[in-house]
From TrEMBL:
A single GO BP: mRNA processing
Location in the cell: Nucleus, Nucleolus
Domain TSEN34 N-terminal: start-end pairs: 36-99
The protein, known as: tRNA-splicing endonuclease subunit Sen34
Length: 284
C-alpha cells in the first residue's frame, strides 16, 4: 500500500514538472515572438515583416515605406515594404526592449562550403531548367502546327506533364540566416543624442512624430495617429549651448506661419527637455 502511494506521488511530481517546463518554453517562445526584428542597411533601420510593422504602429512608431510595389515597380506614388525607421524610433524600441537587431552572421568555413554546394546545385538546376524549357518550347511549336493542320485542341495531358517537369526542376536558392544581436550599427553623436532625448520625451507625452520632409525642422509632431490627424508642431532640436541667430529665428517662425504650424524649440537639459514655441504675429 505504501509503495503504491509513493509511486503515485512520484508520478504526480513528474507531471507537475513537465507542465512547468512546457509553460516555461511557451513563455520563452512568446517573448521571442513579441520582439520587433529590425534589419539594418548600413546604419538605416528597416522593418520587413508586416507583423513587426503592426507592433511598431501599436507603440507609436510610424516610419515611412520606401520599397517599390511588385506589380507597379516603375512609380513612386504608392510605396511598399520595407518600412524605414528614424534612428530615434529604433533607439526607443531598443531602449524599451521591444526590438532586437537582425544582422547577417559571420560565415564560417562550413557555411561557405554549404553555400558553395547550394550555389552549384542552383546553377545545375538552372541549366536543367533551361534545357527543359527549350524542349517545352519545341513541343509547343509542334503542338501549334498539329492544331493548325488537324484543327484539333491540344491534349491537356501533355500540358500537365510539362507543368510537373517544371515543378520537379525548380530549385530554391540558399537563404541567409538571421539572428538576434545586441549590436546596433548606428553612429551615436551629440546631435543624435539631442534628437533622441527630444523624441523620447515627446513620445512619453503621447505625441506621434515623423520626419519633417518638406516642412524643415527635425520632427513633425502629431496629437494622434498621423492617419487621422494633421501635424500641429514642427520640432527643432537644439542644444542649450548653441547660439541661434535672430535671422534664423525669424525664418523658422515665418516658415511655421506659412504652413500653419507652431514651431517648437526643443533643448534637453539635465534629463529633461525645455520647450519654447515660436509664432509669427506681424511684421517688425
Amino acid at each position: 500500500m505504501d509503495g503504491d502511494l509513493a509511486g503515485m506521488n512520484k508520478s504526480s511530481s513528474m507531471e507537475v514538472k513537465e507542465d512547468m517546463d512546457t509553460q516555461s518554453e511557451s513563455a520563452h517562445q512568446t517573448s521571442k515572438d513579441a520582439l520587433i526584428d529590425i534589419s539594418f542597411c548600413g546604419s538605416t533601420p528597416l522593418l520587413w515583416k508586416v507583423s513587426d510593422m503592426k507592433r511598431g504602429r501599436s507603440v507609436g512608431v510610424i516610419g515611412a515605406v520606401v520599397g517599390s510595389l511588385a506589380r507597379q515597380p516603375r512609380q513612386n506614388v504608392r510605396l511598399g515594404r520595407p518600412l524605414e525607421l528614424l534612428q530615434e524610433e529604433a533607439l526607443l524600441l531598443e531602449e524599451t526592449s521591444t526590438a532586437a537587431a537582425s544582422l547577417q552572421p559571420q560565415v564560417d568555413r562550413g557555411d561557405e562550403e554549404r553555400h558553395s554546394e547550394a550555389v552549384r546545385q542552383y546553377e545545375a538546376g538552372l541549366e536543367s531548367s533551361y534545357k527543359e524549357q527549350c524542349a517545352l518550347a519545341l513541343e509547343d511549336k509542334k503542338t501549334v502546327l498539329r492544331r493548325i493542320m488537324k484543327e484539333k485542341e491540344n491534349d491537356s495531358s501533355s500540358l500537365l506533364d510539362c507543368l510537373n517537369a517544371l515543378d520537379q526542376a525548380f530549385c530554391l536558392m540558399w537563404s541567409e540566416r538571421s539572428f538576434h544581436s545586441t549590436d546596433w550599427p548606428m553612429p551615436r553623436d551629440e546631435r543624435l543624442n539631442t534628437r533622441f532625448c527630444v523624441y523620447r520625451d515627446l513620445r512619453n507625452k503621447g505625441l506621434y512624430l515623423t520626419s519633417t520632409g518638406k516642412f524643415g525642422g527635425d520632427f513633425l509632431v502629431y496629437p494622434g495617429d498621423p492617419l487621422r490627424f494633421h501635424a500641429h508642431f514642427i520640432a527643432l532640436c537644439i542644444s542649450m549651448d548653441d547660439e541661434l541667430p535672430l535671422c534664423d529665428i525669424l525664418a523658422i517662425a515665418r516658415l511655421g506661419s506659412n504652413v500653419k504650424k507652431t514651431v517648437l524649440l526643443c533643448s534637453p537639459v539635465e534629463g529633461d527637455v525645455v520647450y519654447s514655441s515660436l509664432q509669427w504675429c506681424s511684421m517688425v
